[in-house]
Design brief:
423 residues; alpha/beta; five-stranded parallel beta sheet; 15 helices; 13 strands; 14% strand; globular
């Protein structure tokens, strides 16, 4: 085993390629976007992730990593393409199917095929396997070793967690699981557990569904606290002192291409027996409207108010705006007629059609500031900037990250006691 072909060079495929290249494998990274391919072959990257620029440049300079728009023959094929959802919230597995079809001309007996994309239960069995068998491969005879190994990393720590996190490898056969596990054992320092493909698919989905439900509890608590004039953050801190309680923090909603999406992959397969998962999704999806409602209450006395929106990403300290509730909040505010000036230190203008501004431009003459991401820059920001540039230094902090200051009026989701309209 010497050569690995990685299909998809996004947030998972590119770091995976770099890690295997650093381990000495020859890597061909494949992407349909020619700009991505050209950028990588120059030793540069198109996404933000700590440690990734250096790893990619080293791999490209050493000749261990190259990018292409077409696959090549290899010993191992790793599929790491997106799995978005349709409008009806069912999974779109077309990219996984097309990626599988794209490698058919390059397969040879004994190849290992690993799907890392997050997929609904039985996708390996019902989508990937039929494409291969229809092409003449005898999977029960292990002509090819086919497995699902879900990624389990968090943006901002991908390079570290790819190596140190526990991995689950689920094969269509025990032999396939063993072959795929051997691939990861050459780079992964965490434990590697072998299982079936369906159990691996479900394990990944349940990890994120568990977190979605936990966040939903926190967000529902925030709404209850608003009714009862209770500080939800203090309630959570106190409750979490119990050794078996770990409630997460409320916020403007849930985003990213994992927690906000993965529960739907289970729900579509068993809608009649997943009411808890469905309710959690409804609660978390309702939070942007809850935030907009608080903004409207704050600004009901103002004519054409200007809002400074801080943060567009779905989580702190990354450039990832996929499924971001911050974007949803901003779009809803614009639809309500607000003049919105957005600032995010991690988002580049080419990523979005939302006009981006500096801190000072966003705050200048703003009637209120809405904080939608807990970036380190916001936590470290001098609160006096709000007083210095804003028309009225009122801040609605949905992430509980802005420092309190005598010269600003600060409200937090989960602690909205005393919220009153701006005069």
């Amino acid at each position: 085993m010497n050569k690995i072909c990685v299909i998809g060079l996004g947030y998972i495929g590119l770091p995976t390629s770099a890690v295997f290249a650093q381990a000495g494998y020859n890597i061909v990274g494949v992407d349909v976007n020619e700009n991505v391919v050209n950028t990588l072959n120059e030793g540069n990257i198109h996404i933000e992730e700590p440690g990734l620029p250096e790893a990619v440049k080293e791999a490209v300079d050493s000749g261990k990593l190259k990018a292409s728009t077409t696959p090549e023959e290899a010993d191992v094929f790793i599929i790491a393409v997106p799995t978005p959802v349709h409008e009806d919230k069912t999974a779109n597995t077309d990219y996984v199917a097309k990626a599988t079809e794209s490698i058919l001309p390059y397969l040879k007996k004994g190849n290992t095929i690993i799907v890392e994309s997050t997929i609904p239960p039985r996708t390996t069995d019902d989508v990937v396997a039929p494409i291969l068998t229809d092409a003449g491969w005898d999977l029960p005879a292990n002509d090819l070793y086919v497995s699902h190994c879900p990624e389990r990393v968090i943006p901002g720590k991908i390079m570290e967690e790819l190596i140190h996190n526990t991995r689950i490898v689920g094969g269509l056969s025990p032999e396939a699981a063993s072959k795929a596990a051997d691939v990861y054992r050459s780079v992964v320092k965490g434990e590697i557990h072998e299982t079936t493909s369906v159990e691996a698919e479900m394990a990944k989905l349940m990890e994120n569904t568990y977190r979605d439900i936990n966040i939903a509890i926190a967000n529902e608590l925030a709404k209850v606290s608003d009714k009862l004039d209770v500080n939800a953050h203090e309630v959570i801190n106190l409750a979490n002192m119990h050794p078996r309680v770990n409630i997460m923090q409320p916020g403007p909603g849930v985003g990213g291409h994992c927690i906000a999406v993965d529960p739907y992959f289970i729900i579509e397969k068993a809608k009649e027996v997943t009411p808890l998962m469905q309710t959690a999704r409804q609660i978390n999806d309702s939070m942007p409207d809850f935030v907009v409602g608080q903004v409207k209450e704050l600004t009901e006395n103002l004519q054409k108010p200007k809002l400074a929106v801080f943060g567009l990403t779905y989580k702190a300290n990354v450039d990832d705006i996929r499924e971001s509730p911050a974007i949803t909040v901003l779009r809803k505010l614009q639809a309500e007629g607000y003049n919105v000036a957005a600032h995010d230190p991690f988002v580049r203008q080419e990523q979005t059609d939302i006009d981006l501004h500096s801190v000072e431009e966003a705050l200048k003459d703003a009637d209120a500031a809405i904080v939608l991401a807990d970036h380190k820059q916001f936590k470290e920001m001098d609160p006096s900037l709000f007083q210095q540039y804003m028309k009225t230094p009122v801040v609605l902090d949905t992430r509980n990250c802005i420092q309190k200051h005598d010269d600003i009026t600060l409200y937090q989701i989960g602690h909205l006691t005393g919220l009153k309209p701006i005069d």
